[in-house]
Write a sequence for this structure.
């Protein structure tokens, strides 16, 4: 597939992100187990961070970790690129200072800071240059650490007043020759893809989004227009490939009244693999309590000498005050979970808000909203924007004419942009993201297409379940009533 489905509007669609190419950031071999290092070169495609508005081409065949993490000095680490076999690691940070620096002052300050941190460091070069049309500085040094001599290069690019993008590359000193040229090429590829005008627009959108969140909590209007049950066909390159089953209900958890959402997706791929994802969410009426649980199963039939297999991953999250506590599978089928604590700002929007957005925002008033949200792929926070587009459109879906409002969903106003169409009641009627399309449908339309496929897949999944392992998923044939939801 060559499209990517936005996870901001329907958080339960991680299954599509797993199979759709990441048009937003075609990361260079972002696997957890990189292959043996090839000759060092720049990656073919840039890494794009739409939330912070920059792109860069890192070195090829690297593992990419996308996150937003505060370090001990108050800088925000945005991404890390590593190649363990070669011992290379590069980080990109956003640094803020208490006063304004010129390039000479910044170079002196960097040298003083690093020398204090590494007393045996030997500075080899200090340069002033221009990158991305802005002033920048570069410092190169050797640092003995852990019995190894490292070659460190660090570039700081002036961004806004008292803010800098900082790129740091550490390699074994023996690789200095190739690392110097490659680092120069990588930093020259660095681009700031957000203008000052766009930045101001996003700040206004964040303010608008935060005000909407406050009004929802204040007026307790989260569950005023719930959709009890809804179906969407999933088309890939115009071909029926699966469906989504969406349900919303009033729910009480730990004596807190709120809204429960259940989103189940099935995707039947051309190669015979089947992906099933179930996401269950809860959000209290006052917006202070949130939790979610996502399970993704990939079931592959036997092919020749390759036996059938089932790969399961899980993610769980709960909000505790201004923190998110998130746990996710360390690897498919692993019983071990990794834990992560994420601090959230006032502009943070729980996943359920994006699904309910068409029914809690005023669709008659075109506007741009921005929120900070949790992204499962990055396992951290991103900046999501939702734009209500002026004017209504007439859609033809299954011989029905539907008047719909378009909402554009993206990260940080950077393509790709997903198109979401909703009817007067705020129900999803069409979603377009690359070569993936979703269309509102009925149980009668999808049952003949998928009931037998779902039943066969569930039977195979039960056969593959390990004794003593996690129980197989409940039967969830489209329209089935054997799936119980807490009331």
């Amino acid at each position: 597939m060559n499209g990517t489905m936005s996870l901001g509007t329907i958080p339960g669609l991680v299954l599509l992100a797993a199979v759709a190419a990441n048009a937003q950031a075609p990361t260079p071999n972002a696997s957890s187990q990189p292959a043996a290092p090839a000759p060092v070169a720049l990656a073919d495609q840039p890494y794009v961070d739409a939330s912070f508005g920059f792109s860069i081409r890192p070195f090829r065949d690297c593992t990419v970790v996308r996150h937003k993490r505060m370090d001990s000095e108050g800088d925000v680490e945005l991404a890390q690129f590593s190649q363990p076999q070669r011992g290379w690691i590069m980080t990109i940070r956003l640094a803020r200072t208490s006063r304004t620096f010129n390039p000479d002052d910044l170079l002196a300050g960097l040298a003083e800071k690093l020398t204090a941190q590494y007393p045996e460091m030997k500075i080899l070069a200090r340069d002033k240059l221009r990158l991305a049309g802005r002033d920048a500085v570069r410092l190169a040094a050797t640092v003995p650490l852990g019995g190894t001599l490292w070659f460190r290069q660090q570039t700081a690019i002036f961004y806004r007043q008292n803010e800098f993008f900082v790129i740091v590359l550490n390699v074994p000193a023996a690789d200095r020759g190739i690392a110097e040229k490659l680092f120069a090429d990588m930093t020259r590829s660095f681009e700031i893809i957000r203008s000052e005008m766009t930045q101001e627009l996003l700040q206004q959108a964040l303010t608008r989004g935060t005000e909407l969140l406050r009004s929802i909590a204040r007026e307790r209007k989260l569950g005023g227009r719930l959709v009890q049950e809804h179906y969407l066909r999933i088309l890939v390159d115009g071909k029926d490939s699966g469906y989504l089953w969406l349900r919303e209900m009033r729910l009480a958890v730990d004596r807190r009244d709120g809204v429960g959402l259940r989103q189940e997706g099935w995707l039947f791929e051309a190669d015979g693999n089947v992906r099933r994802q179930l996401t269950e969410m809860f959000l209290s009426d006052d917006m202070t309590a949130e939790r979610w649980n996502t399970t993704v199963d990939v079931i592959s039939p036997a092919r020749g000498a390759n036996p059938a297999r089932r790969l399961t991953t899980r993610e769980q999250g709960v909000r505790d005050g201004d923190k998110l506590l998130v746990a996710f599978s360390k690897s498919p089928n692993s019983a071990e979970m990794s834990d992560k604590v994420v601090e959230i700002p006032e502009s943070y929007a729980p996943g359920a808000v994006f699904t309910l957005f068409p029914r809690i925002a005023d669709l008659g008033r075109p506007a741009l909203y921005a929120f900070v949200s949790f992204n499962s792929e990055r396992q951290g926070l991103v900046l999501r924007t939702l734009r209500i587009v002026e004017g209504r459109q007439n859609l033809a879906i299954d011989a029905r004419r539907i008047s719909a409002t378009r909402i554009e969903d993206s990260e940080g106003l950077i393509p790709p942009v997903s198109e979401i169409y909703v009817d007067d009641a705020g129900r999803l009627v069409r979603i377009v993201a690359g070569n993936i399309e979703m269309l509102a449908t009925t149980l009668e339309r999808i049952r003949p297409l998928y009931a037998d496929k779902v039943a066969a897949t569930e039977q195979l999944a039960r056969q593959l379940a390990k004794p003593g392992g996690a129980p197989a998923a409940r039967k969830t044939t489209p329209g089935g009533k054997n799936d119980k939801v807490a009331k």
About this structure: The helical segments are 14-19, 103-117, 176-189, 196-219, 351-360, 443-464. The chain has two domains: 54-192, 201-444. Residues 1-36, 468-475, 479-487 have pLDDT under 50 and may be disordered.
